[in-house]
Amino acid sequence: MISNYFFKLSEEIEYKCQWYGCELVVVDRFFSSKKTCSNCDLVQDMPLNLRTYDCQSCGLSYR
What we know:
Oligomer: single chain
Structural class: mainly alpha
Order of helices and strands: HEE
Distance between the termini: 36 Å
């Protein structure tokens, strides 16, 4: 039952993206987005006790 709910939700999100002309990007559930810089795509290890991401390549810092 829950999987059916998420399937319907994903269909609805895809429909709304098409309706508004935006792009839907679906990534693998194991993609390490928390370790990837949104500016230069550098992937670095990040311990769980750190709350601020400081990119060593481009200098971007964000929470």
